[in-house]
Each structure stands twice: as structure tokens, then as C-alpha cells.
Amino acid sequence: xxxxxxxxxxxxxxxxxxxxxxxxxxxxxxxxxxxxxxxxxxxxxxxxxxxxxxxxxxxxxxxxxxxxxxxxxxxxxxxxxxxxxxxxxxxxxxxxxxxxxxxxxxxxxxxxxxxxxxxxxxxxxxxxxxxxxxxxxxxxxxxxxxxxxxxxxxxxxxxxxxxxxxxxxxxxxxxxxxxxxxxxxxxxxxxxxxxxxxxxxxxxxxxxxxxxxxxxxxxxxxxxxxxxxxxxxxxxxxxxxxxxxxxxxxxxxxxxxxxxxxxxxxxxxxxxxxxxxxxxxxxxxxxxxxxxxxxxxxxxxxxxxxxxxxxxxxxxxxxxxxxxxxxxxxxxxxxxxxxxxxxxxxxxxxxxxxxxxxxxxxxxxxxxxxxxxxxxxxxxxxxxxxxxxxxxxxxxxxxxxxxxxxxxxxxxxxxxxxxxxxxxxxxxxxxxxxxxxxxxxxxxxxxxxxxxxxxxxxxxxxxxxxxxxxxxxxxxxxxxxxxxxxxxxxxxxxxxxxxxxxxxxxxxxxxx
Amino acid sequence: xxxxxxxxxxxxxxxxxxxxxxxxxxxxxxxxxxxxxxxxxxxxxxxxxxxxxxxxxxxxxxxxxxxxxxxxxxxxxxxxxxxxxxxxxxxxxxxxxxxxxxxxxxxxxxxxxxxxxxxxxxxxxxxxxxxxxxxxxxxxxxxxxxxxxxxxxxxxxxxxxxxxxxxxxxxxxxxxxxxxxxxxxxxxxxxxxxxxxxxxxxxxxxxxxxxxxxxxxxxxxxxxxxxxxxxxxxxxxxxxxxxxxxxxxxxxxxxxxxxxxxxxxxxxxxxxxxxxxxxxxxxxxxxxxxxxxxxxxxxxxxxxxxxxxxxxxxxxxxxxxxxxxxxxxxxxxxx
Lengths: 512, 335
Description:
Chain A has 21 helices and 20 strands. Chain A is α/β, with parallel strands linked by helices and 512 residues long. The two termini of chain A are 40 Å apart.
């Protein structure tokens, strides 16, 4: 049996840095083939090479025995290769269903003449395409968005929409780049079901994914990348037992638990501080995006020195709540009080000076600036004092990788390094209340552990933390208290331990 | 019945047709007609430009160049070589489309500011050629263009015609022609947008990467829409030349290009009917502001600035959003 996708001695260098080096593997038709490895290992680069978005420096890729060297991405699509993206690529200027109909492009040929006069043949084809797209949206589980604008959809639904668009092209092989990133446990198990269904149709699936439970459950074969090279490849069983993989990717402390159950750790929790002084108080808060009410009558209290976690499904309004606190999203009603001061009239930049600093979702580092400048910009509100340089030194000590890369552009860093930079930049503003939005999103298990350790250390230094996380079990295990948000409302609150053992929460967000 | 009409794809086109039918009641003298005819011709041009800018997310700061080429092609072919108007218009459109294709292939690889600069340069080059080729174009002094003529039947703004037994003046006849042309321009644009080709165009704006991985040849579609919008401009330039009876290189000028883009942005990028409103407003404003005399340009700029600050999506999309919110509120109160 010949391979559907074959990669031979593939090399890709970005200005002297080898992102992918000497990678060879073969994917047979009908397989679920996963690529795993730490952040910056070259997984997405590999996908970009396979789908023709990058040109290899050396080596060869064969699709169905044909070299893809001279083919553009659209020509690869014609030959049956489709993909989704880690950073979702949705046309926000179209409706949801039009995005899926776009996937039918290759199967809808119509001349300019037919189009301009909208002849009956075109109308028939369009109606059929619309019907097919609607079926696909139901198939991937976003059937309730049939009449929506793409911009009105939640994050999780958009991820499924991207899969529907790829399926609409009737591919032979579909490449999914981190489909589970940013999904909660319940959504992830729905995704697992979906990938299984796709594979059963006979479509070959290639997957880049950090969620080990998902990967181990559905893959036929795995490829492990580290620093752009193949560490090993084999069946899930073989990979699970490979000590090298555990050391490079899963972390020394990792055990079977991480493979199976998302590493739930109740141990070494810091006890809540004695002084329960109220730091931030939100009362009756409401906000909306145009017609859509995003938050409704929110009451949240954060005491100084606490870690407070906010969990909830995608689109529940978690990020929106953080943005209202940092002043980026205007409120429709209710009050936010920070250390006794009403924030209603305080602009976002002044809030930073007051001590409220956000680490935004998706890092949002200044990609065209050096790491050093990114950090200095974090201290912008403090002016140029000798103290700033001391703090800079402290950040470099805390994140040695940032010191090492301080002259690199932030855009050249891997996902995990960018997350550290985003945290470092926020710390440079000397926050008293740190708002963290999905710090572990799209990161490898080893890095996630590191990030959570840092969160813990920051708390010990006396910084109050409001944490939004999809990784609900880990976030709640770390938190003093937590809130559960559902469609813009707080539905449950309690201590981290209470929420972890709350039947409803376990079912809805922890997938247990 | 009314409900079904309101949801139909072509309701905007029907409303526009009704407006064009009723409008003559309010047009008192030939000057009014002239203004409206110019509006219609320019509106049709910007509908074409909007396909490129509003839907495909590319930009052209030199579109008056194609408008001017169409105008001069018709002027020279009919005036100097005695062609009939319609073949001149069609051949002109084909030639301009071909030029746009040749020019578009390389420059549409550029993005953002670089594409702006390149299209700007294209416009400048065309204007310079029209200025310098005195022998053919008459140079900066311009050239006369014969009246529009089809099958030996001449449509002059000074003529008198009878239509179904009704005595109409030349400008009224031109008004009918311009209305039909505008409606056709709208109809073609609407058909194009809601089709596989239109989706491919919009996906180039939405996400070029996403478009390419589902099989859209983005380079091809960018060229296609650039050519289509240039053909729109060329055809309208031909009509403009015949209607005015006299053209100067100003029709291909930078100022004219900027005016087109401003109409698109002001009316509402990606809204076919919005850009018509943009054209109407920008043609009317100078008339209304004439009372301010030397402050005219200041007022003009101020109005543009305020519109963009408070209606960043453009006039029509913002207005329809307000109206639909009101209506929904009313429906909500009623229930």
C-alpha cells in the first residue's frame, strides 16, 4: 500500500534557524496521524509546508505519489488536501453558512456570463451548495448557527465551522491544527467524536494537538517532534512508553495521569491569606456587543492576595468580563470598584497605572518589537526610573529564556515563550491585580505546568490574580475561589475545592 | 406578500427603480437632470470600484485612470475615426480590461500601502499620457466628443425626442438611458456578489489563506475583480464622454480617483446601494455648500471627518442598522 502523504528529509530554515530539519514520515490512507511535541517544535511549520503555505528549503513532499513542490495551496486543495488553522481563518465578512459554501468552491464551476445574468443553472447549484453546507454544519455540531453571521459565533463553534468548511471540499486528507485548543473538556470530547466520524468516512486525518488524552484515544500513529527533528514515531502504545518523549514533552513529574485525565492536582495548594480585604468588587455589571448582551447582572468579588478562577464554556463571556475590568469593553450598567474607587470614569490606561493589568488572550505581544522593548513597554505607565531596570532584571531571572532571546523579535518566539513574554510584560507594570486570560491556551503539557507554577509564585509575592482558563480542573485546583459563568451570568460560585467537587461543574466543564 | 418582497434578493433594485421613476417629478430644469445623470454615471463607476475595494478588500487609488481611458477611447474612436458609439464603447471596455489585466497581474501581489502606491502610479501614468499625447487627445485643452449614437439614431442633450407619443427633451432621454445603465450595473453587481465567484472574492478580503486552502486561486480572482472594476469604469467613462460632449484629462486625474474612493468609503464599503448614496451625497454636497463660499472646502472636509468618526461603516449600513433597531424595538414594545 502506498502512502497518501509522504514526507522525505524535509527541511525548513527561517534565516539560519531550522524550524524543521530532516523530517521523514508517511501517512497511509484512512489513518488518524497525529503530530505532537513541545511549543516551537515545528508542528505548525510542518503543516504549513505540507499544505503549500511555505516552500521547503530542502526535501520533498508527495501527495498520492505526486511531488507537491511546484503546487500552490489551492492546487493542493484540488488534489484533495484541506486544513484548519491554529489561529482560526474565518471570513468574518460573510455569514456562517457562506463560509462553509466557500468550501464547495472547487465543486461549483460557473462562468462569468452565467453569474452576471444569474442563469437558472447557477441558482440550482447555489441552492444545492447551501443545502449541503447546512447539512455539514449540523454534522459538525453548529446547526444552530445556520442563519448567523460568522462574527456572531462563539469560539468553539467557529472551530467546528472551520472543520465544516474543510469537509465541504470533500477532501481525501484533512489536516487539523490544534482543534482542541481553547475548548473545555465537554467540547473536547464532542470533537473527539467528530474526528472519529470523519475518519470512519474514510478521510485521512492529520492532527497537531496538545491534548494528550484526545491524541492517544484517536490516533493510529504518532510523530513526536522536538526542536524541529523527529524524536520518535509509532503507535500510541509505543509513544506512551517512550522515556524520551516523557522527558522532552510531558515533563518529569508527569505520570499516567497526564495521559489519561488532564493532570488534576490538589496538592501543594497555598492556604488562603488571613487578611480578607476586598480589592475588586463588581456589582450588577452588564455589557453588550451591539444587540447581543454579553454579560448580565454580574456580581464578583476579589479579595487581595487571592487567586480567583473564572470558568465556563466558550462564548460564556469570560474574556468580556476581563475586558470590562481592564476598561477595554464599555459597560451598560453596574459598578466596578477597585480598592474603594469607582472605575466608571477611569480610562483603560489609567487603570494600568492604578495596578490593574491584563495578560490578554492569545498573548498579544508586539511582534515587530524585540523582547526587550516589549518588556520595557510594559513599564510604560511607570516612566523611566531605575526601579524599572531592576524589575527588568527580575523578569529576566524569572524567565531565563527571555534573557536569552532579548534581542529577538517577539514574533519569532514560540507560543510558550510568547506567553511568558506577555506575563513578563504585564509584571513590568507592577500590577496589584493581574487579569490572566487563558494563559495555557495552545501550550504543551510541560509548559502549562510551568505557567501554573509561575501563577502560584506570583500569588506568593502578594499579587492578586483573576484567572480565566479552559483548563478548568487545573485552574480550580489552584484557586482560592472560583466563579462559573454561563451565557453571561454567574451560575455557581464557591471555593476552588467546592467547585471541583460540584456535580454540575464536573459534568459541564471537567468532562467527568 | 409585502413581507416576502422585503426579504427578496432584489428588493433594493426594485426600490431604486421606483426612485428613478418618481424622481423626474422633482427635477425642474435641465441643470437638475444633468446633475442626476452625472450622479448615475459616477454611481455606476463606484459600484464597480466597490467590488474591488469593499468586497475583495483590495484598493485602487488610480481608478479614474480607467474611467479616463474609456472616455478618451470613445472620444477618439467616434470623433477622430468616425466609429459608431456602441462598438467604440465595447472595444474600449475590452482594451481597458486587457490593460487592467496586464497591469493587475504584477501589482495585485502587493498588499496594503504598497498596492495603494502602485495603483496611484497607474492612475498618474494614464493621466500623464492623456496630457502629453496632444495629437490624439488634444492635451490639457481637452477634446470634443460627438453625441451618443446607436444605429444611426443620435442622442444629443439638445435634441427633442418622442417616446411612446410623449415629447421629451434630450436630457430626459439621457436620464432614461443613465437610469437603465445604473440599474444594470447594480443588477450585475448583486448577481456577482451572490455567486461562487462573489464568495471567492469576499473570501480574499476575509482570509486569503482560508480561501487558498479550500481551492480558491486568489491571484486569479484578484485579477478578475480588478479587470471587472476597470471595465465598469471604462464603460461609464464612455457614457460620461458622450454625455458631456467635451473631455479633458481631468477625468483621469488623481482628484477624481480620490473622489471615487471617498464615495465608496463614505457610502459604505461592501454595500452596493451604500456607494450609490455615497456618490449622490458627494455630488450634492458642493451644490449645497456653495453658499459657504470660501469655507466650502473646509465644510466639505469637516462633514467627511464627522461622518467617518460617527459612522465608520459608512452612511447606508449605519442608517439601516439604526432603522432596523428602531423597528425591532417597536415590535418588541407591541408584543
